[in-house]
Amino acid sequence: MEESNPAPTSCTSKGKHSKVSDLISHFEGGSVLSSYIDLQKDSTMNLNIPQTLGQPGLTSSPPRKFLPQHSPQKQENDPDQTQGQHGCLANGVVAAQNQMECEDEKETTLSPEMAIQTAAASPDTHVLNGERNETITDSASSIANSHDENASDSSCRTPGTDLGLPSKEGEPGMDAELQERENGVNTMGLDTLDQHHEVKETNEQKLHKIATELLLTERAYVSRLDLLDQVFYCKLLEEANRGSFPAEMVNKIFSNISSINAFHSKFLLPELEKRMQEWETTPRIGDILQKLAPFLKMYGEYVKGFDNAVELVKTMTERVPQFKSVTEEIQKQKICGSLTLQHHMLEPIQRIPRYEMLLKDYLKKLSPDSPDWNDAKKSLEIISTAASHSNSAIRKMENLKKLLEIYEMLGEEEDIVNPSNELIKEGQILKLAARNTSAQERYLFLFNNMLLYCVPRFSLVGSKFTVRTRVGIDGMKIVETHNEEYPHTFQISGKERTLELQASSEQDKEEWIKALQESIDAFHQRHETFRNAIAKENDIPLEVSTAELGKRAPRWIRDNEVTMCMKCKESFNALTRRRHHCRACGHVVCWKCSDYKAQLEYDGGRLNKVCKDCYQIISGFTDSEEKKRRGILEIESAEVSGNSEVCSFLQYMEKSKPWQKIWCVIPKQDPLVLYMYGAPQDVRAQATIPLLGYVVDDMPKSADLPHSFKLTQSKSVHSFAADNEELKQKWLKIILLAVTGETPDGPSEHLATLNNLPGPKKKSEC
């Protein structure tokens, strides 16, 4: 980089020998005083330019006429020449200033008109996409050329050099007067420069800059797409074809990245390149971006599968060494920029919002009368819709990135990396011991569904915390406590543990209580909404029951769908407790619970056998409030089966007992518990298994039951067997999440399976 001004040392030792000779001849040919006056004129003119451009946001270099004639390398290597220079930093660009002093009172300064012309002629430096583009006008050079070249060289001298000029002590007050003049002239120059700069920012030049930025970022984006498509995807597919892992997994990770890459590299980028070459005759980009709209569907498919793709990369990296080896080898290359595969996979998600941002800026600078206005506006409307989906995926990715950081801080012991987990708050806190009330340092991570209570781990490398307790939000209560000895305390009471904590200040305490309470309320609201939706579908409220019951024939529950009375929950047997149907609600009940008769409107008002609940509603007889709230169509197993993560018949064996066929359900509202029923319509579960903490063994031990798996915890052993491998994998997918405290966030597919079955008797899986 060239120096803006020469150092204020003697130019006789720095300039070329020819310049020195000319300068000496110039002074020998006339009086010293007249030469000095000419010198001061040029010096004053040169002085005004850096003074004007020393403002923030403006950068300049002096006219070429005043630049030193020796090489830049010599300037950098010579320590004497750098003395006395002052660099001002303005928007990342250094503008050098060289302050010179003048002594002669007879010296004439620049007129305001010439100062304005000089300031306006200063070059503007703009930073665009990391590159500097400088436009230097010739006005400053023309001003410099109007004076003698030798005088410009001699202006390098400072007062008091060996030319015998008057000393600066001989002219008191001259510096102040000259500075005053310079300030007045430079103020006018600044105003004119700002106006000139403003005019430039509002014309088509700014539109050209936006289009240029679009082109440059598109080039960088295509290179990232090529990295994903031609490097990561191809290398992993080659490894998959060797049999290291299924090629289907690679296709799921990269989705339609090849199609996206082909569109941008073969169509959009060449179109932008061509348009920028023809910008003088066709200054528009809206028509090109409008052609992008039909191809946004490709991004919709990519965004839709992004969460699963990132999760699959994590799983494959942990479980398949060959996959991990290939990805790490590529990530070490310079082209990756020390970023992981997951970071590069985010590039297509981030690109659509980038188009939206550039188009918005483009429309702000574009005149409504422009022929490109309609195309640009229509493009923005279409791209904005796609950008909203991309922004949602970006937020999820940022959340997932934060979860990965916490996962590493916890020593990779707590499997919290799940898109359904959202970090609400984290921070240091003190825990009051129950025995001696001493305060102990702890760290909390609050998520939308749990609280991690951690202890600091003192180690030089690796994890920072150890999880002491995982407290679920479900059932959690917050109590503000008052302790005179320990202020700012509050209590967290959960199913797993109760903690008395001390915040650092009253504000910190209020923030924690607020965050915890909002998380609890949001959790209950989600589950309450879910339960209300189930109640509307499966239960008949009292008012509706009174109006509808007996007026419409019910659907009878099949006998083989229950093993116990749906009212008193007593088991059926062939001799003493047989099955009966209530003609009003269709439930299967025992003889004790069906020993009632009521007139049913749909049967012409004839008396029919009904259950006790239906009799109470039809006849108007009321029982206790508790029985009222139960409802007459409450079917426990059917309720959870119809809204479950997975449900089907499985073979079950506990310890050395024989295998038996049972109906198993993991409900959505309680996804960490496995419910086991005798039949799909039973109102009471035979047993439940809290899955959290169990160890899953999916290796079959028996040739007779090849699709079996086992759950083990301490001395408890539960063995299950599915009818086929597909059903087994569906169960294992949900159970493997549940044993680590995680819940599936995607919609379950069992409802579609149920809808395709001809009748309730064939509820083999869901």
Report on this structure.
The longest helix has 38 residues. 31% of the residues are buried. 44% of the residues lie in helices and 16% in strands. It starts with 16 loop residues before the first helix and ends in a 10-residue tail after the last helix. It has five domains: 192 residues, no CATH class; 205 residues, Dbl homology (DH) domain (Dbl Homology Domain, Chain A, Up-down Bundle), CATH 1.20.900; 93 residues, Pleckstrin-homology domain (PH domain)/Phosphotyrosine-binding domain (PTB) (PH-domain like), CATH 2.30.29; 93 residues, Herpes Virus-1, CATH 3.30.40.10; 126 residues, PH-domain like (Roll). The strands form six sheets. A seven-stranded antiparallel β-sheet has the order 8-7-6-5-11-10-9. Strands 19-18-17-16-22-21-20 form a seven-stranded antiparallel β-sheet. The protein has a two-stranded antiparallel sheet with strand order 1-2. A hairpin with an 8-residue loop joins strand 9 and strand 10. By secondary structure, the protein is α+β, with helices and mostly antiparallel strands.
Q: Could you give the distance between the termini?
A: 71 Å
Radius of gyration: 41 Å
CATH architecture of the largest domain: Up-down Bundle
Low-confidence stretches: 1-17, 26-182, 534-545, 624-635, 746-765
Structural class: alpha+beta
Number of strands: 22
Rough outline: globular
Q: Percentage of helical residues?
A: 40-55%
